[in-house]
Amino acid sequence: MGLDVTFLGHSGFLLSDGATTVAIDPFLTGNPVAVTKPKDVRCQAIVLTHGHSDHMGDSVAIAKANDATVFGAFEIYEYMGEQGITAEPGNPGGKITADWGWVAFTQAFHSSSYNGRYLGMPCGAIVHLAGVTVYHLGDTTVFGDMKLLGEFYKPDIALVPVGDRFTMGPELATMAAELIKPKVAVPIHYATFPIIRQDAKGFAPKGIEVKELKPGETWRYA
Ligand code: NI
Ligand code: MN
C-alpha cells in the first residue's frame, strides 16, 4: 500500500496508487507556480472543493481529455453536466463510493462561484484511495467541528490552506491541524500570487509532521 501525492501548486494535487489517479482542484493554466501542463494530466477522477477559478482551473479540459468523472457540490455537478462531463454530485456529510475508493465532502467557510454563477456550498473534500485518507480542507477558516471530522474520518494527511486573506493564515491553520490531528499536514494555498502569503512560516502544529511540497514534487506516503 502506498499513495503518491503530487503537488500541482496552489491547492492542486494528484493522488495515485498506480492504477487510479484522482486530481483535486487542478488549477494549472494561469497558475504562475505550476510546472505541470493540463494535457499531461492522466486521471480517472477530479474532485473539486468549490467553483472559484483557482480551484476549477483546467477541470473541464482535463475531464474531457481523460473521460474522468468530476466529484463536486450539486451545483458543480449541474455545471459539469452542461459541459457534457460525467459528474457525481455531493454535499457536506455525504460519502460517494467509487470503484477505487470514496469521496466525502465537509463544510468550509468560504464562497463558491464561477464567472458570476453560484456553484453551491464551498466544501472540504476527503478522498480515500489505496487505504489512505486525505482531507483537503478547500478554502476555509478554522471551525471547531474540524475536531469531529478528525475523530470520524481519521485522515492520514491533511492539506491545509495557510496563505491568509482568503483562507486561514498560518496561526489559524496551526489550530486547524491540531483539531484534525492528521499524521502529516501539508501547507497549501500560499506563494501562488502576491496577494497571499509567500511562505508557510508559522504553520507548526504540535505533534504533527509538516510536509512542504514544491509544485511538481511527488511525495510517496506509505
Ligand atoms: Ni476560493
Ligand atoms: Mn482559492
Task: Outline the structure in words.
With 222 residues, the protein is α/β, with parallel strands linked by helices. The chain has one domain: 4-Layer Sandwich (Metallo-beta-lactamase, Chain A). Helix content is 18%, strand content 32%. It is built from five helices and 16 strands. It has a seven-stranded mixed beta sheet, covered by helices on one side. Strand 13, helix 5 and strand 14 form a beta-alpha-beta unit. Helix 4 crosses helix 5. The chain is globular, with a radius of gyration of 16 Å. The protein binds nickel (II) ion and manganese (II) ion. The site of manganese (II) ion (MN) has 6 residues, from helix 1. The site of manganese (II) ion has 6 residues, from helix 1.
Question: Main traits of this protein?
Answer:
222 residues, alpha/beta, Metallo-beta-lactamase, Chain A, seven-stranded mixed beta sheet, 16 strands, globular, binds nickel (II) ion, binds manganese (II) ion
- What is the end-to-end distance? 6 Å
Shape: globular
The chain-level structural class is: alpha/beta
The fourth-level CATH homologous superfamily is Ribonuclease Z/Hydroxyacylglutathione hydrolase-like
What radius of gyration results from the CA coordinates? 16 Å
Give the neighbour order of strands across the main sheet: 6-5-4-3-2-1-16
CATH class category: Alpha Beta
Question: How are the SSEs ordered, and which strands pair?
Answer:
Elements: E1 3-9, E2 12-16, E3 21-24, E4 45-47, H1 53-56, H2 59-66, E5 69-73, H3 74-82, E6 87-90, E7 95-98, E8 101-107, E9 113-114, E10 117-118, E11 123-129, E12 132-136, H4 146-153, E13 157-161, H5 170-180, E14 184-188, E15 209-210, E16 218-221
Parallel strand pairs: 3-4, 4-5, 5-6, 12-13, 13-14, 14-15
Antiparallel strand pairs: 1-2, 1-16, 2-3, 7-8, 8-11, 9-10, 11-12
Helix pairs in contact: 4-5
